[in-house]
Design goal:
The complex is a heterodimer of chains A (about 375) and B (about 500). Chain A has about 375 residues and is an all-alpha fold. Chain A is built from 15 helices and no strands. Chain A has a single domain, classed as Amino acid/polyamine transporter I (Up-down Bundle), CATH 1.20.1740. By secondary structure, chain B is α+β, with helices and mostly antiparallel strands. Chain B folds into 3 domains: about 110 residues, no CATH class; about 120 residues, no CATH class; about 160 residues, no CATH class. The chains are: A mainly alpha (about 375), B alpha+beta (about 500). Chains A and B meet through helix 5, helix 6 and helix 13 of A and helix 12 and helix 16 of B.
């Protein structure tokens, strides 16, 4: 397997689009439950913790880009092979692919669950899962350009939901946030860890990087995308805290959707129906990008066509959806993936980039030694 | 579609025809099985024989008599050789040929073949006539504002109009032929230093590679050369307005005109081009902007309104104030909302189709019968609710505002699956359809370019051309979606801000 990936010129996309990729892949099913999850750990300071999680993400993104810059045009799988050799590298990549598939699975399963709870209690899980998987497969068949387009249009098309979030502010009580910074370090770190499910997704930059046209500007746009996410998340958490009564937030499951319930339109009673339906557009780029990244890994490692990988992964994920029957099981799986995400998206890339950097540094030193000798 | 049409064109070696007139007649007759239409006129002088071969139906008789036969007959001193005859014939389009297939092709095209027995070659003179209608007002794309002239079926006439619109010497017209049997003439038109090479080459290659017996017109040619023939969305625009073509050429697009087809085909044309009307350009920019937005909104609502009605009614999310009136009007309706909506949509489609097929006067009556009588009766009979009639009428109107007839039809057809999905899954169903169409539109391309351009990939400067309409002084650059070679339309005025009372 080649370390560097040189896609055709026509497949490259502008670095500018990274804003939308990073933002759209971060915002997904996690954010509807984010305020509650963080609130459980850190109480009314949750919004500050979410902000810090965003800052931490930005640092990790910096690590990733620095690592990617050590190579000409490599992706995560290529770097693995370069650093760990063929066998160990591919083994680690394989583990990562499983993590990506698990993310894919958790996203559509969680969305199906939300739909079942809010709109169609009797809808069989497999039906909606089937449709979502097919949509993702259809998009991924179009390649990276279509997926980037999906993430762009998804961000543009759902931007208005942020504006709607200001409606609950009319009923807000701003005293809920006082006293500010009342949380200790231990709970804060725990809180940051709990945000991982919502904020992860940015690790996919390591897979799309070879397809970026102006690679030297990638860092800037990635940071803007993450900044936008951080801003959105902090806002959402802040509004949830001031909107819900003190213990109300810990009792709801999806505070964001519950908040949207109070929006009233003259010709439509239950606004959350629209919000839940529209959420499909929010999770669509997530599904596409995770499916794309994992199937890309499939074709890179096993050297078969990516189309085959797409179908195998889609069938595996669809089959797995039959094993989850109850709400508590789904919760378990989600928690598991969230934990895995914390290690796979937050910790591992930092370790890997340090290894890569050290390796390159050693190689450079050797070279200069040879030269001077 | 282009893929299965690819193939190599076979060429047979041709041979010279017989130099004896009687044999030549037989040869031509056996090549062309046309009966009495094929006419010969033989002249004799000093044992020399001369024959005129032509198709009765294709030749302009007075021209033939006056400009070909008369000079030869009257000129007694004339020596009957090809050079000498060519010298005296007052005909501009004259060529010397002796290959049998060339002769036959010429005769089919309406030329007269003049041959003197024993000569090594003969003369082919063009006195053909074409039957064509005069230039008329645009019918399918009727306008309130702007030039009314429309293309006709005559290629020469169409080119004449275009040449008069653009007097740029760089306006290129390449000759191509399509149809292995019909051999229709096609002109590939572009402005050399504006249109991108890749688009010109793309069109040329695709048209040249077509291996098909007959192409029925520019619209069909468009279907044959676009990349995704499965999609409901047309990927190339056809228009009958010369000024629309002129504007397109000036923006760097490539135009294809076909003989005997009153439509011009041009590309690359992204999705939003189909919602542009030339009137937007002729109007003041703010009104053009408003109308263009109105049209986009109409198309959007046309797709969305009926499904939304079905979703809202099936899964009862109506506020109490509206519930009363909706409930009252639906109280008599025994059907579920999906069925009701599909029924009425079907009815409207029938009306439209019937109106299009009938003569104008009957068509108007149809409209009244359909719209008022049946509409009112359907409500009274408890087939549908009043509100649905309003919604259906709105969405039908919305789809007719689209300037491109093809796109309007596509929008109407797309509605049916969405209504069914909305009936099954409510808002989720609509969203599934929405997501599908987003992906689908992203996957489409027009001559290799992105179909959703300039929205994706985002091209700020082009938005002023297609999505918005901005004052002309801000459009100093041609749209980069077309990759123009010469980007500059005019040099942007240097803005010098004036102070008050300066």
């Amino acid at each position: 397997m080649k370390v560097n990936l040189h896609p055709k010129e026509s497949l490259l996309f502008n670095a500018f689009q990274l804003i939308f990729i990073i933002h759209s892949v971060q915002v997904g099913v996690g954010v509807v439950g984010l305020p509650k999850i963080v609130f459980l750990e850190t109480k009314h300071d949750a919004w500050i913790v979410v902000f810090f999680a965003g800052v931490l993400t930005s640092v990790i993104l910096w690590f990733m880009i620095v690592m990617l810059r050590q190579y000409d045009s490599a992706d995560f799988y290529g770097i693995h092979v370069d650093v760990f050799g063929k066998w160990l590298g591919n083994f680690l990549s394989f583990g990562y692919i499983i993590y990506l598939i698990a993310c894919f699975f958790v996203i559509f399963m969680n969305y199906t669950e939300i739909v079942q709870v809010w709109i169609f209690p009797k809808l069989p899980t497999w039906q909606l899962a089937f449709i979502l998987i097919l949509l993702a497969v259809y998009a991924v068949h179009g390649g990276i350009r279509v997926i980037v387009g999906v993430s762009f249009l998804s961000v543009i098309g759902t931007l208005w939901i942020i504006l709607v979030l200001f409606v609950p502010l009319r009923y807000a009580d701003f005293t809920h946030i006082y006293p500010i910074m009342n949380v200790d370090i231990k709970h804060m770190l725990k809180g940051i860890q709990r945000t991982s499910l919502s904020i992860m997704g940015f690790e996919l930059i390591m897979f799309v990087y070879p397809f970026v046209k102006e690679k030297h500007r990638a860092l800037l746009y990635v940071q803007i995308g993450n900044l936008f996410t951080t801003f959105t998340y902090t806002l959402v958490t802040f509004i949830s805290i001031v909107f819900f009564a003190e213990d109300g937030l810990s009792k709801v499951i999806w505070p964001v959707i519950s908040m949207l319930k109070i929006v009233r339109l003259p010709n439509l009673e239950r606004f959350e129906f629209i919000a839940v339906s529209f959420w499909m557009l929010v999770i669509l780029p997530n599904l596409c990008l995770y499916l794309w990244a994992s199937s890309k890994g499939f074709s890179r490692i096993i050297k078969r066509t990516q189309k085959m990988g797409i179908w195998i992964i889609a069938i595996v994920a669809f089959g797995a959806s039959f094993f989850v029957k109850a709400r508590y099981q789904m919760n378990m799986v989600t928690d598991l993936v969230a934990k895995a995400g914390f290690y796979a998206a937050f910790c591992y890339p930092v370790v890997l980039s340090i290894i890569v950097y050290l390796k390159k540094w050693l190689a450079r030193r050797k070279k200069s030694h040879v030269k001077s000798a | 579609m282009i893929k299965w049409l690819l193939g190599k064109k076979s060429t047979e070696p041709s041979k010279a025809h017989s130099f004896i007139i009687d044999e030549l007649k037989e040869q031509i007759k056996s090549e062309l099985k046309v009966g009495s239409e094929l006419t010969y006129r033989t002249l004799k002088k000093d044992k020399q024989k001369l024959v005129f071969c032509f198709m009765d139906s294709l030749v302009y008789k007075p021209g033939l008599d006056e400009f070909i036969i008369a000079p030869i007959q009257k000129n007694a001193k004339l020596e009957w050789t090809c050079e000498a005859i060519a010298q005296i014939l007052p005909i501009s389009d004259l060529s010397a040929v002796n290959q049998l297939d060339e002769v036959v092709t010429g005769i089919i095209e309406g030329k007269v073949y003049i041959y003197v027995e024993g000569q090594p070659y003969g003369l082919q003179a063009d006195v053909s006539k074409t039957v064509e209608r005069g230039i008329e007002k645009a019918e399918t794309e009727s306008l309130v504002y702007g030039p009314k002239i429309a293309f006709t079926e005559s290629l020469i006439g169409n080119i004449n109009i275009l040449r008069h619109n653009i007097k740029d010497p760089n306006l290129c017209m390449e000759d191509l032929t399509v149809g292995t049997r019909s051999k229709s003439k096609v002109k590939l038109i572009y402005i050399k230093d504006i249109a991108a090479e890749e688009h010109v080459n793309g069109f040329r290659e695709k048209i040249n590679q077509l291996e098909i017996d007959h192409v029925a017109g520019a619209t069909v040619l468009g279907q044959l050369i676009e990349n995704n023939s499965w999609s409901v969305f047309p990927q190339l625009v056809t228009t009958e307005l010369p000024d629309r073509v002129t504007i397109a050429l000036m923006r760097g697009k490539v135009v294809v005109l076909m003989d005997r087809s009153p439509d011009a085909l041009y590309g690359p044309t992204p999705f939003f081009t189909f919602f542009e009307s030339t009137e937007d350009v002729y109007m003041r920019w703010n009104m053009g902007l408003g109308l263009r937005f109105l049209r986009l909104l109409a198309a959007f609502l046309s797709v969305l309104l009926t499904p939304a009605y079905v979703a809202v009614l099936t899964y009862e999310v109506i506020p109490s104030a509206l519930l009363v009136s909706l409930g009252q009007s639906r109280a008599n309706v025994p059907f579920p909302p999906v069925f009701e909506a599909l029924l009425l949509e079907f009815f409207i489609e029938l009306l439209r189709e019937a109106g299009a097929r009938l003569p104008t006067k009957v068509g108007q009556t149809m409209g009244i019968v359909g719209g008022i009588v049946i509409g009112q009766a359907a409500v009274d009979a408890g087939f549908t609710s009043n509100i649905l009639i309003i919604i259906i009428a709105l969405s039908a109107l919305g789809s007719f505002t689209t300037p491109s007839y093809l796109m309007g039809t596509a929008i109407r057809m797309v509605r049916f699956p969405i209504i069914i999905l909305a009936g099954i899954l409510g808002g989720i169903g609509i969203m599934i359809a929405f997501c599908f169409f987003i992906i689908h539109l992203l996957k489409l391309d027009t001559m290799g370019g992105s179909y959703l351009s300039p929205v994706y990939p985002l091209r700020w400067k082009d938005l002023g051309y297609s999505f918005f309409r901005v004052p002309t002084q801000y459009l100093s650059k041609r749209p980069i979606t077309n990759h123009p070679i010469d980007v500059q339309r005019f040099s942007a005025p240097k803005a010098k801000k004036k102070d008050v009372d300066e």
